[in-house]
Amino acid sequence: MFETPTFEQIRERILRDTKSLWPDADISPDSDHYVHASRLASCAEGQYAHQSWIVRQIFPDTADREYLERHASMRGLRRRNPTTASGTLTVSGIAQSMLSDGLQVRIGQRFYRTTARAVIGSGGTAEIPAIADEPGAAANVATARRN
Asked: In terms of DSSP bridges, do strands 98-99 and 110-114 run parallel, antiparallel, or are they unpaired?
């Protein structure tokens, strides 16, 4: 894979070429050739950055959102709306306690709501279905407990 040269490398190559063409050229940091090489290197660095950005847009897995959606549209695909995470919460508490539907549970910075009623069993736990308050993958959790 091509490695983009740094500003300093580009400037050094320009100065090397200048010295090659004019052996007596002054390429010290205080020279006109050095200033000219720095200006050209800055422009070239910008072009390399733009080319790197273009390459990222070519491939769907590295493309920015706008270009990813364009890739999808060219293939007849469209972005789906985020769905709400759902699953089962294991809740612990006093046996025979009633859990109502609509109970709000906080896990980290996310909130979930129970979607059915449940009774805590003799073992001190109950499984109760719940959904996330907000859609999106960020609400997916592997396990959740309410004490």
From this structure: unpaired
Residue spans of alpha helices (H) in the chain: 7-21, 32-58, 65-74
Residue-wise pLDDT for 60-73, tens only, equals 999 999 999 999 99
pLDDT at 2 over 50: yes
On whether the CB atoms of residues 59 and 52 are closer than 8 A, the answer is no
Q: Which residue has the tokens 């091509």?
A: 2
- DSSP one-letter code for 31: S
Determine how many CB atoms are found less than 10 A away from the CB of residue 48: 16
Q: Which helix (H) or strand (E) holds 86?
A: strand 86-92
pTM: 0.56
